[in-house]
Amino acid sequence: MEMNSDKPDESNNEIERLKKENEKLKENQKLRSQNIKPISDPSKGHYKIKLKYIVYAAVAVIAIFIILDIFVINHANSSKYLTVGENAPNYTFTAENGSTLSLNNYKGTPILLWFVATWCDSCAEGNTAVADNLNFFETHNVKIVELEQYDDLGESGMSISQFISKYGNNNSYVHGGVASYNMTLAYNTPPTMQLDIFYLISPSGKILYKGEGIANSIPQLENAITKNGL
Protein backbone atom coordinates (compact mmCIF):
# COMPACT_ATOMS: atom_id res chain seq x y z
CA MET A 1 0.00 0.00 0.00
CA GLU A 2 1.30 3.46 -0.88
CA MET A 3 1.65 6.02 1.89
CA ASN A 4 0.11 9.43 1.35
CA SER A 5 3.04 11.85 1.66
CA ASP A 6 0.68 14.85 2.24
CA LYS A 7 -0.62 13.67 5.63
CA PRO A 8 2.56 14.14 7.66
CA ASP A 9 2.85 17.74 6.38
CA GLU A 10 -0.78 18.44 7.24
CA SER A 11 -0.25 17.08 10.74
CA ASN A 12 2.85 19.19 11.24
CA ASN A 13 1.04 22.32 10.07
CA GLU A 14 -1.82 21.62 12.43
CA ILE A 15 0.59 21.15 15.33
CA GLU A 16 2.30 24.46 14.54
CA ARG A 17 -1.03 26.23 14.39
CA LEU A 18 -2.07 24.84 17.75
CA LYS A 19 1.27 25.86 19.24
CA LYS A 20 0.83 29.43 18.02
CA GLU A 21 -2.71 29.63 19.35
CA ASN A 22 -1.55 28.29 22.68
CA GLU A 23 1.23 30.90 22.85
CA LYS A 24 -1.21 33.63 21.94
CA LEU A 25 -3.62 32.45 24.65
CA LYS A 26 -0.83 32.48 27.24
CA GLU A 27 0.22 35.97 26.19
CA ASN A 28 -3.35 37.27 26.50
CA GLN A 29 -3.71 35.70 29.93
CA LYS A 30 -0.47 37.34 31.00
CA LEU A 31 -1.64 40.73 29.75
CA ARG A 32 -4.99 40.39 31.53
CA SER A 33 -3.20 39.57 34.79
CA GLN A 34 -1.27 42.84 34.37
CA ASN A 35 -4.49 44.73 33.59
CA ILE A 36 -3.32 45.42 30.01
CA LYS A 37 -5.62 45.14 27.03
CA PRO A 38 -4.99 41.89 25.08
CA ILE A 39 -3.03 42.30 21.88
CA SER A 40 -5.81 40.58 19.96
CA ASP A 41 -8.00 43.71 20.40
CA PRO A 42 -5.75 46.78 20.07
CA SER A 43 -8.18 49.04 18.20
CA LYS A 44 -10.57 49.63 21.12
CA GLY A 45 -7.79 50.68 23.49
CA HIS A 46 -6.35 53.01 20.86
CA TYR A 47 -9.78 54.53 20.33
CA LYS A 48 -10.22 55.16 24.07
CA ILE A 49 -6.80 56.80 24.38
CA LYS A 50 -7.47 58.99 21.35
CA LEU A 51 -10.88 60.04 22.70
CA LYS A 52 -9.32 60.89 26.08
CA TYR A 53 -6.81 63.29 24.51
CA ILE A 54 -9.51 64.89 22.38
CA VAL A 55 -11.52 65.60 25.55
CA TYR A 56 -8.42 67.04 27.27
CA ALA A 57 -7.71 69.30 24.28
CA ALA A 58 -11.33 70.53 24.17
CA VAL A 59 -11.28 71.36 27.90
CA ALA A 60 -7.97 73.23 27.49
CA VAL A 61 -9.35 75.31 24.59
CA ILE A 62 -12.49 76.19 26.56
CA ALA A 63 -10.37 77.20 29.58
CA ILE A 64 -8.21 79.48 27.40
CA PHE A 65 -11.28 81.22 25.97
CA ILE A 66 -12.73 81.74 29.45
CA ILE A 67 -9.45 83.26 30.71
CA LEU A 68 -9.19 85.58 27.69
CA ASP A 69 -12.80 86.64 28.11
CA ILE A 70 -12.25 87.48 31.78
CA PHE A 71 -9.10 89.47 30.89
CA VAL A 72 -10.91 91.49 28.22
CA ILE A 73 -13.85 92.23 30.56
CA ASN A 74 -11.57 93.27 33.42
CA HIS A 75 -9.45 95.43 31.13
CA ALA A 76 -12.54 97.09 29.71
CA ASN A 77 -13.78 97.83 33.22
CA SER A 78 -10.43 99.19 34.43
CA SER A 79 -9.55 101.24 31.34
CA LYS A 80 -11.97 103.80 29.92
CA TYR A 81 -11.74 106.90 27.84
CA LEU A 82 -11.26 110.01 29.96
CA THR A 83 -13.88 112.66 29.41
CA VAL A 84 -14.08 116.40 29.93
CA GLY A 85 -15.28 117.28 33.41
CA GLU A 86 -13.80 114.38 35.34
CA ASN A 87 -10.74 114.48 37.53
CA ALA A 88 -7.42 113.83 35.83
CA PRO A 89 -5.87 110.57 37.14
CA ASN A 90 -2.87 111.28 39.34
CA TYR A 91 -0.20 108.85 38.09
CA THR A 92 3.56 109.30 38.27
CA PHE A 93 6.07 110.11 35.57
CA THR A 94 9.83 110.54 35.42
CA ALA A 95 11.00 114.11 34.81
CA GLU A 96 13.96 115.00 32.60
CA ASN A 97 16.19 115.36 35.67
CA GLY A 98 15.31 111.84 36.82
CA SER A 99 12.94 112.81 39.65
CA THR A 100 9.53 111.18 40.05
CA LEU A 101 6.60 113.59 39.79
CA SER A 102 2.82 113.44 39.52
CA LEU A 103 0.05 115.89 38.68
CA ASN A 104 -0.15 116.77 42.36
CA ASN A 105 3.10 118.64 41.89
CA TYR A 106 1.23 121.05 39.60
CA LYS A 107 -1.87 121.58 41.76
CA GLY A 108 -2.99 125.19 41.65
CA THR A 109 -1.66 125.71 38.12
CA PRO A 110 -3.37 124.96 34.79
CA ILE A 111 -1.51 122.31 32.79
CA LEU A 112 -1.35 121.25 29.19
CA LEU A 113 -0.58 117.53 29.60
CA TRP A 114 0.65 116.17 26.29
CA PHE A 115 1.51 112.55 25.47
CA VAL A 116 3.78 111.84 22.49
CA ALA A 117 5.96 109.24 20.82
CA THR A 118 9.39 110.59 19.93
CA TRP A 119 9.35 108.88 16.52
CA CYS A 120 5.99 110.45 15.61
CA ASP A 121 5.93 113.04 12.80
CA SER A 122 2.79 114.84 14.02
CA CYS A 123 4.34 115.07 17.51
CA ALA A 124 7.42 116.71 16.02
CA GLU A 125 5.21 119.19 14.16
CA GLY A 126 3.31 119.76 17.39
CA ASN A 127 6.50 120.83 19.18
CA THR A 128 7.14 123.45 16.51
CA ALA A 129 3.53 124.68 16.69
CA VAL A 130 3.67 124.94 20.49
CA ALA A 131 7.02 126.79 20.33
CA ASP A 132 5.52 129.25 17.86
CA ASN A 133 2.69 130.01 20.31
CA LEU A 134 4.58 130.04 23.61
CA ASN A 135 3.65 133.66 24.32
CA PHE A 136 -0.02 132.69 24.59
CA PHE A 137 0.66 129.84 27.04
CA GLU A 138 3.01 131.99 29.12
CA THR A 139 0.52 134.86 29.26
CA HIS A 140 -2.18 132.51 30.58
CA ASN A 141 0.29 130.76 32.91
CA VAL A 142 -0.47 127.35 31.40
CA LYS A 143 2.38 124.95 32.19
CA ILE A 144 3.21 122.51 29.41
CA VAL A 145 4.19 118.97 30.39
CA GLU A 146 5.18 116.85 27.40
CA LEU A 147 5.54 113.15 28.21
CA GLU A 148 6.98 110.36 26.15
CA GLN A 149 4.53 107.49 26.41
CA TYR A 150 5.73 104.35 28.20
CA ASP A 151 8.51 102.57 26.29
CA ASP A 152 7.85 105.00 23.40
CA LEU A 153 4.92 102.71 22.51
CA GLY A 154 7.29 99.88 21.65
CA GLU A 155 9.37 101.76 19.08
CA SER A 156 12.82 103.28 19.19
CA GLY A 157 13.09 107.06 19.18
CA MET A 158 15.28 109.80 20.60
CA SER A 159 15.04 110.88 24.22
CA ILE A 160 12.24 113.28 25.16
CA SER A 161 14.80 116.00 25.97
CA GLN A 162 16.39 115.72 22.51
CA PHE A 163 12.96 115.61 20.91
CA ILE A 164 11.75 118.83 22.55
CA SER A 165 15.05 120.58 21.88
CA LYS A 166 15.22 119.56 18.22
CA TYR A 167 11.64 120.33 17.20
CA GLY A 168 10.69 122.92 19.85
CA ASN A 169 13.31 125.49 18.92
CA ASN A 170 15.32 124.84 22.10
CA ASN A 171 12.60 126.34 24.30
CA SER A 172 12.84 125.76 28.05
CA TYR A 173 9.17 126.40 28.82
CA VAL A 174 8.05 122.87 27.91
CA HIS A 175 8.80 120.37 30.69
CA GLY A 176 9.62 116.90 29.38
CA GLY A 177 9.36 113.51 31.01
CA VAL A 178 8.49 109.84 30.53
CA ALA A 179 5.06 108.52 31.55
CA SER A 180 4.76 105.38 33.63
CA TYR A 181 2.98 102.32 32.26
CA ASN A 182 -0.18 102.99 34.30
CA MET A 183 -0.23 106.65 33.38
CA THR A 184 0.05 105.82 29.67
CA LEU A 185 -2.85 103.36 29.89
CA ALA A 186 -4.99 105.78 31.88
CA TYR A 187 -4.61 108.68 29.46
CA ASN A 188 -4.31 106.75 26.22
CA THR A 189 -6.75 103.87 26.42
CA PRO A 190 -6.07 100.82 24.21
CA PRO A 191 -6.82 99.35 21.74
CA THR A 192 -7.07 102.65 19.82
CA MET A 193 -3.96 104.26 21.29
CA GLN A 194 -2.98 107.63 19.87
CA LEU A 195 0.55 108.83 19.20
CA ASP A 196 -0.29 112.47 19.91
CA ILE A 197 -2.97 113.14 22.55
CA PHE A 198 -3.31 116.06 24.97
CA TYR A 199 -5.41 117.27 27.92
CA LEU A 200 -6.00 120.74 29.32
CA ILE A 201 -6.26 120.38 33.10
CA SER A 202 -7.58 123.02 35.49
CA PRO A 203 -5.74 124.20 38.64
CA SER A 204 -8.06 121.93 40.67
CA GLY A 205 -7.22 118.89 38.54
CA LYS A 206 -10.30 118.62 36.30
CA ILE A 207 -10.10 117.90 32.58
CA LEU A 208 -11.25 120.98 30.69
CA TYR A 209 -10.43 119.96 27.14
CA LYS A 210 -8.88 117.03 25.28
CA GLY A 211 -7.73 116.50 21.72
CA GLU A 212 -5.48 114.67 19.30
CA GLY A 213 -2.81 116.10 17.01
CA ILE A 214 -1.82 119.30 18.77
CA ALA A 215 -0.19 120.83 15.66
CA ASN A 216 -3.63 121.19 14.06
CA SER A 217 -5.46 122.01 17.30
CA ILE A 218 -3.76 125.19 18.54
CA PRO A 219 -6.76 127.49 17.78
CA GLN A 220 -9.22 125.16 19.55
CA LEU A 221 -6.84 124.76 22.48
CA GLU A 222 -6.35 128.51 22.88
CA ASN A 223 -10.13 128.98 22.69
CA ALA A 224 -10.63 126.42 25.48
CA ILE A 225 -8.03 128.19 27.64
CA THR A 226 -9.76 131.54 27.15
CA LYS A 227 -13.24 130.12 27.56
CA ASN A 228 -12.35 128.55 30.90
CA GLY A 229 -10.92 131.84 32.19
CA LEU A 230 -7.36 130.61 32.54
UniProtKB/TrEMBL annotation:
Molecular function via GO: antioxidant activity; oxidoreductase activity
Biased composition (Basic and acidic residues): 1-30
TM region(s), chain numbering: 53-73
Name of the protein: Alkyl hydroperoxide reductase/ Thiol specific antioxidant/ Mal allergen
Membrane recorded as keyword: yes
InterPro entries: AhpC/TSA, Thioredoxin-like_sf, Thioredoxin_domain, Thioredoxin_ResA/DsbE_sf
Lineage top rank: taxon: Archaea
Keywords linked to the UniProt accession: Membrane, Transmembrane, Transmembrane helix
Stretches the record annotates as Disordered: 1-39
Domain Thioredoxin: 82-230
Keyword Transmembrane helix: yes
